[in-house]
């Protein structure tokens, strides 16, 4: 698979180079939280790859994962990458050593994962519609927040960690106060379950993708629509650049209705595209 990286020079989106290495479909892409030159990808080939876009011809590291990873997130200080696989196993990878340092098997359906604003709590969305909050690094359970009336599929924290957003099978996007753990607002413009979310670098914009052939971009404060990005296939992963209004997204080339995150899906190679505001 090929990961394409592009720039917004002269206010136009232009392709710079491709990152080649994965032997199968790219499932997730995530930028390093503070270093705009570094990004990570996971693939159906059961590897985590770390890239430096200044040297795109080779990977910085290739780590074999425990099973097929469907969710990935960085700790805010960039020290650790968390991976969640199809079998509800969560692993933690040390960024400097490129080694898996710990893992935990959960007895419920684990969807998207992420750290809170102080990195001392770890959040997991679940099949019962709740957000599970655990202590980090012990992962001992602390509480559950009822978030959606159906599966809670995705979760993202804003860069300043003031807010977090959840998306569910009820097609709702919910915005929460991260400090008070209180609900702020909901909106819904997508018809299918919300599968991927990403805040932009200043936390003012939220991109959302589903099996609709569009990406919805909204103002976080109001939920008002800012832009819509048309897609040829449904976007199963969106990720804003850490310093620019540049959105990377991965689309499924198979069909609109194939379930990319299904545990028994038959996937084909995807492609990574970018959109600049």
Describe this structure in words.
With 277 residues, this protein is mostly beta strands. It is 0% helix and 53% strand. The protein has strands at 2-7, 14-20, 26-31, 38-43, 47-52, 61-64, 69-74, 80-85, 89-94, 99-105, 110-115, 121-126, 130-135, 141-146, 152-157, 163-168, 173-177, 182-187, 196-199, 205-209, 214-219, 225-230, 235-240, 246-251, 271-276. The protein has a four-stranded antiparallel beta sheet, with no helix packed on it. Strands 7-8-9-10 form a four-stranded antiparallel beta sheet, with no helix packed on it. Strand 13 and strand 14 (141-146) form a beta hairpin. Residues 255-270 have low confidence and may be disordered.
Quick rundown:
The protein has strands at 2-7, 14-20, 26-31, 38-43, 47-52, 61-64, 69-74, 80-85, 89-94, 99-105, 110-115, 121-126, 130-135, 141-146, 152-157, 163-168, 173-177, 182-187, 196-199, 205-209, 214-219, 225-230, 235-240, 246-251, 271-276. The protein is mainly beta.
């Amino acid at each position: 698979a090929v990961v394409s990286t592009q720039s917004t020079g002269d206010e136009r989106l232009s392709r710079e180079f491709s990152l080649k290495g994965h032997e199968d479909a790219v499932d997730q892409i995530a930028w390093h939280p503070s270093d705009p030159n570094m990004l990570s990808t996971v693939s159906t080939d059961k590897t985590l790859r770390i890239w430096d876009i200044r040297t795109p011809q080779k990977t910085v590291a290739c780590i074999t994962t425990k099973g097929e990873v469907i969710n990935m997130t960085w700790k805010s200080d960039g020290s650790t990458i968390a991976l969640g696989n199809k079998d509800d196993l969560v692993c933690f990878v040390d960024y400097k050593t490129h080694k898996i340092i710990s893992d935990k098997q959960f007895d419920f359906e684990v969807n998207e994962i992420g750290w809170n604003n102080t990195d001392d709590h770890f959040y997991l969305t679940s099949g019962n519609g709740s957000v599970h909050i655990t202590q980090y690094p012990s992962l001992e359970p602390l509480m559950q927040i009822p978030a959606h009336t159906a599966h809670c599929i995705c979760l993202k924290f804003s860069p300043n960690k003031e807010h977090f957003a959840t998306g569910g099978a009820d097609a709702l996007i919910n915005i929460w106060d991260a400090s008070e753990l209180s609900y702020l607002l909901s909106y819904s413009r997508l018809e299918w379950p919300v599968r991927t979310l990403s805040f932009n670098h200043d936390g003012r914009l939220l991109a959302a993708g589903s099996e609709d052939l569009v990406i919805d971009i909204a103002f976080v404060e109001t939920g008002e629509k800012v832009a819509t990005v048309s897609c040829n296939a449904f976007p199963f992963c969106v990720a804003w650049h850490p310093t620019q209004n540049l959105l990377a997204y991965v689309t499924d080339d198979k069909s609109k209705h194939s379930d990319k995150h299904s545990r028994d899906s038959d996937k084909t190679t995807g492609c990574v595209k970018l959109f600049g505001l």
